[in-house]
Request: fold
Amino acid sequence: MKRILVAVGLLTALTACSPSSEVAPTETIAAESSVVDAAAVIEISVIVGENSGPDRTETVALGSTVRISLLNSGSEDDFHLHGYDVASGEVPAGEEAVIEFVADAAGEFELESHVTGEVLLVITVQ
Ligand SMILES: [Cu+2]
Reply:
């Protein structure tokens, strides 16, 4: 199952991470299909535990549409991109989640697991 989440709460203040008790303030919209120009989408593939970690960095241009495919190779998890406040929701073991967002704010943003607290990827938008 793939889910595409588009952030609409981009003005939401940065929130500190609290793995199990976080009440998501983020508004998300589940979309059946992407309406963006495929050629303009930056695809990032993450296999959790294989090519993920705090030392993995990806740099994207400001204004890009970024689509992160996350294969959850571990147990059930919940992934979250800080700063943009987009989350995957619960992802069962072995399933893939897609987090998509428009990189309209510059900076460094951590993608992390809310179960382990591990940083999986750092995205630099510049
Ligand atoms: Cu988080």
Q: What stands out?
A: The mean pLDDT is 81. The pocket of copper (II) ion is lined by residues 17, 80, 82, 112, 114 (CB under 6 Å). The CA atoms of residues 46 and 70 lie 5 Å apart.
